[in-house]
């Protein structure tokens, strides 16, 4: 029979010109634009194949054009999102979210701020605590280490949400249309 | 008191040859294989020394007296209760609800067959022992024909058919008899008569019907089906014959009147139905190690909403030839083959080296596979090139605990192919300069340690990919050994070899999973990094 040494990991080098990032490998991106009628108030929800969703800001969000120091505030009304805790396989005790729920506020040094809505129904599993210490991650890697929260919903809700929201291609189309309109 | 007079007394009461031996208290299995010869010898040998009157008396029982009560027998007795001369055993209704797992029970099994008058005793046999009652209908008044070979062919055929159908490929079997209660009652009556007729007759020595049946019927059944008869404690296959006697209820009527509550309980549980039953074989466990060479093969069938996502799995590739060996169809295989392993790897992870320990539980195996067949199984499993199994050996049930334990406590060695995605923190390079793995990078990884007693202690959150079905925890896990190597002709790649605690998610450590595993490989390398491929190089467990 074959000897173990016959198989080497070096025979598994993929095409390095077509590498995908971690989120592009495992997640499918969806977008909501102009939330509450606010231009470029755009969020991105990344769905894992197992229905877990990551919330972040879409690249077109006005946040990315504003060059001012900011921090994330996870206290929403009386609820502290940082104290969210889930128990067991069923994630009991997680804060319940609906599309309008505010997950965090982004507060600028000049006193202005904006809310980040959840965009979908589900249970909050965890927020990215690291953003408290390193808020710049959100600007640098919004679809990676700068994600804002992890949300779990039922298969039905995640499927429905996925089909309702804009796919990546649709999102690019919407952005193109806006640009054209702006130029007119 | 001698054998001859007991035999004569039994014969007078209508016993068959084998029952004569039973009442003699004979316990030699060989004697029951040819009871007739024994009876002839017993009567013949002792004939000279015994009172000729008795012999004459027996011999002169006129055939025409057969319908009379055995008035001429020594210690003349009356008929056994209820139509003892007319047992009419016949195939009964299929038993509707038995506790046995086989569907076979629905096949009616003929009890002692139709009476075959005179067939057992060829009239031209000069040595034929006197057998008054037998002449009437040929069926023994005591065992109801169970010990008479002329009633056996139907039983033999039945058992053979069922065995052929079931395809138990074992070499031994055990057989057991579920006899009518009436046979016990009749046996008791004859024993009492013998006590009256023969002084000092010890009915405590009587050989039980079931034993005699095993030695006589069982022995010839073994020849008929081509299997060796063994004890029920040894053989994995038990054939139980349930014999029903249709006159039973009437015959036991007197007893029923004595203790009706006992009868009520009995009929509520089980009637004396005819069945063919078997006992399951003890499960068989085969142990081995599998090498997984495919990056598109899950360990177990990957189903989403009942739909299969990939064409096969390690489990299916290993089980298919085993199912074929035991001739199990898909549904049987699903119920009777169980795949167990010391942990698992992801679909896109190979498992090399000696492979991962696994075991297959085979429920109710028809037989033990031979050494050659085990080799053949390995060859068949390995033929597709996706999974290699070099050796399969039978393992004990106790041994299986090792697999579970191995899953939880054993270390694993991995090889990970990684790509450096940014310049290291201390590299003074223009942003557009190509990213390359440097000697410094390798040294940095090789020197990296954040704890005593191991190389890396990391805090790992439950990975997102399993978070939908597992609780969210932060677990400390250790990397025990870690080395980084350059990859020839691939300046951006590095090869890592690491040994970890069980339960460490290597991919998540390598790419950091959005910061959910800390520290991650990026912290050692001081640059962004991702993983391209992962192999399990060794699973550290002595198995099988
Ligand atoms: Zn008998």
Automatic annotation (TrEMBL), chain A:
Gene Ontology terms: biological process: dendrite morphogenesis; regulation of actin filament polymerization; regulation of filopodium assembly
A Pfam family that the UniProt record links to this protein: GCV_H
GO terms for MF: actin filament binding; actin monomer binding
Family matches, as InterPro entries: Abitram (IPR039169), GCV_H/Fam206 (IPR033753), Single_hybrid_motif (IPR011053)
Superkingdom of the organism of origin: Eukaryota
GO cellular component: dendrite; filopodium tip; lamellipodium; nucleus
PANTHER family on file: PROTEIN ABITRAM
Family membership noted in the UniProt record: Belongs to the ABITRAM family.
Designated name of the protein: Protein Abitram
Automatic annotation (TrEMBL), chain B:
Superkingdom: Eukaryota
SUPFAM superfamilies: Pseudouridine synthase
Gene3D superfamilies reported in the protein's UniProt record: 1.10.10.2050, 3.30.70.2510, 3.30.70.3190
Annotated ranges, domain Pus10 N-terminal eukaryotes: 140-280
Bias type Low complexity, positions: 78-87
Coiled-coil region list: none
Gene Ontology process terms (BP): tRNA pseudouridine synthesis
Enzyme class: isomerase
EC number: 5.4.99.25
Pus10-like C-terminal domain span: 285-540
Record's keyword terms, sorted: Isomerase, tRNA processing
Segments of this protein annotated with the region Disordered: 65-133
A Gene Ontology molecular function term of the record: tRNA pseudouridine(55) synthase activity
A Pfam family annotated for this UniProt entry: Pus10_C
Bilayer-spanning residue ranges: none
PANTHER family referenced in this protein's UniProt entry, alphabetically: TRNA PSEUDOURIDINE SYNTHASE PUS10
Similarity-based family: Belongs to the pseudouridine synthase Pus10 family.
Name this polypeptide is given: tRNA pseudouridine(55) synthase
Organism phylogeny: Eukaryota, Metazoa, Ecdysozoa, Arthropoda, Hexapoda
